Amino acid sequence: MGERKRHRILMVSDFFYPNFGGVENHIYYLSQCLLKLGHKVVVMTHAYQNRSGVRYMTGGLKVYYVPWRPFLMQNTFPTFYGTLPIVRTILIRENISLVHGHQAFSTLCHEALMHARTMGYKVVFTDHSLYGFADAGSIHMNKVLQFTLAEVSQAICVSHTSKENTVLRSGLPPEKVFVIPNAVDTAMFKPAPTRLSRHEIVIVVISRLVYRKGADLLVEVIPEVCRLYPNVRFIVGGDGPKRVRLEEMREKHSLQDRVEMLGAVQHSQVRSVLITGHIFLNSSLTEAFCIAILEAASCGLLTVSTRVGGVPEVLPDDMVVLAKPDPSDMVQAIEKAISILPNIDPEQMHNRMKELYNWHDVAKRTEIVYDRALKCSKQNLLKRLSRYLSCGAWAGKLFCLVMIIDFIFWHLLQRWQPAEDIEEVPDFVLSHDQDDGIPRDNKNQSFG
Question: What residue intervals traverse the membrane (predicted)?
C-alpha cells in the first residue's frame, strides 16, 4: 500500500443485508471499496432468519451474523452488557484496530461502540438520519446519542444538514464531525437503451410505505395528478403499513389501471423498474440523504422531491424539482417536472452522476477520517468519565455508572478468558478482477 496505513475495521450495525435500505447499501459499498484500497473490513450485525454465523460476501467481505433476533424495526433488544463477550472476541480474533458504527437507532451499534471504548479502541460513528427535539422518542434518542458520542474519536454525517442536526443533538464539537455523502453504483443503474415515448408519462415511486417516507402524501397527490393529466400513470414499488391506504385510494378513485402496486421490490430489480419511468417521486417527510434519488437520477429520471433535510444538497437544481411536504405544492412540482421533461437527456444525466458521486471517493475520504481517529490520544478511565459527567445532572452520573460497570465486566472477562487464549484468524485474501472495482451482492434485498 506504499505509505498508506492499512486499517483493520469492524463495521457494526443492526441494518445490513439481506435487509435492504440506505444504511445497508452504504455499509456494503463502503466496505467493498475499503477492501479495494487494501484495508481489512469485517461486518457485525444480528442474525436474519436462517442467516446466522459467519458468512463471506463478494470480495471476501466477512460478516458476523450474531445469533440475536431483532425485536423491533430490525433492532436487537438492548442488553447493555450482553454483547460484551462476543464483541470482545470478534475484536481480538480479527485483530481489529478501529470500530465504525452506523445509524443512531441501532442498538447493536451503540453497545459495540461502548464496549470498544472500554477496551481502548478508537471508534468512528456515522449518522444516517435526522431527528427532532420535541417529541418523547427524539428526546430519549438524543440522550442515547449524547452518551455514544461523548467519547467518539470522529463522527461522519451524510449531509451538512445532518451534521448540524447531529451536533445540536449530541453536543459534539463541530470540528470532530465530517460530511461525507452517500454515492451510487452508476455501473448498476444505467438508463434504458432506448428513449421512452412521452405519449404516456410514467411516474415511479420506490420506497418503504411508512409515515416517515410520506406515504400519506401520496394518497392525496396521486388522484389529483391523475385528474389533471389523463396520460400520466404511476408505478409504486415498496411495502409497509401504509400500503393499505394506497390500495384504498386506488379503489376509491377507480385508478386500478393507472396506479400499479408492485409490492416489495428486490434491489436487483430496482433498475428495471426505474427505467420504465420518466419521473421519480420522493415524498419523504424527513431525510438526511436519499440514495433512492441518486439511483433514479443515474437511470436518467427527473426527480420530484420534498424539500426536507439534506435532500436539497443531493442533486443540482436542473436535475430535481423540490416542493414543500404539502399535497398542493407537490402537485405543482410534478406539473413543472412534466413541462421540462423534453429538456431531459437521460444519458447526459447518467454521465453527470458518474462524475458527482463515486463510492471510491467516499472510501478515500472515510480513510482520512480513520487516520485522524487513530491519532487521537488515549485517556485513562477517570479522564474518560469526566466527559460523561458533562452530559447532564442526572444523566451524566448514570452514564458514568454504566461505563464503570462495563469496565469491571471487561476485566472479569480478561481473567476468565485471557486475550492470549483467543485465536486470531488468518486474513482472507482475494484478487479483485471486477471491471469497475465495485463487487456486488444482491441476495434478496428488497424495499418494504
Answer: 388-410
Among residues 149, 156, 15, 22, which one has the least CA distance to residue 74? 15
User: Do 149 and 20 belong together in one domain?
Assistant: yes
Instruction: State the 10-residue block means of pLDDT for the chain, 448 residues long.
Output: 76 92 91 95 94 92 93 86 96 97 92 95 93 75 87 93 91 92 92 87 94 94 96 95 96 95 90 96 92 94 96 94 96 96 94 94 96 88 84 88 95 94 83 48 42
Report angle CA 430, 431, 432 to the nearest 5 degrees: 115
* Inter-residue contact 147 to 169 (CB < 8 Å): no
Answer for the pair 258, 234: CB distance below 8 angstroms, yes or no.
Answer: yes
Question: In this structure, are 219 and 274 located in the same domain?
Answer: yes
Tell me the residue range of the domain where 215 lies: 201-356
Distance CA 448, CA 339 (A): 32
Strand-pairing partners, residue 127, are 157
- 119 and 233 in a single domain? The answer is no
Q: Distance (Å, rounded) from C-alpha 311 to C-alpha 313?
A: 5
337 in the same domain as 417: no
- Quote the radius of gyration of the chain (alpha carbons, Å): 23
Residues 307 and 394 in one domain: no
Same domain, 352 and 371: no
Does the reported pTM lie above 0.85?
A: yes
CA 391 vs CA 172, 221, 400, 408: distances in Å:
11, 44, 10, 22
State the total domains in the chain: 2
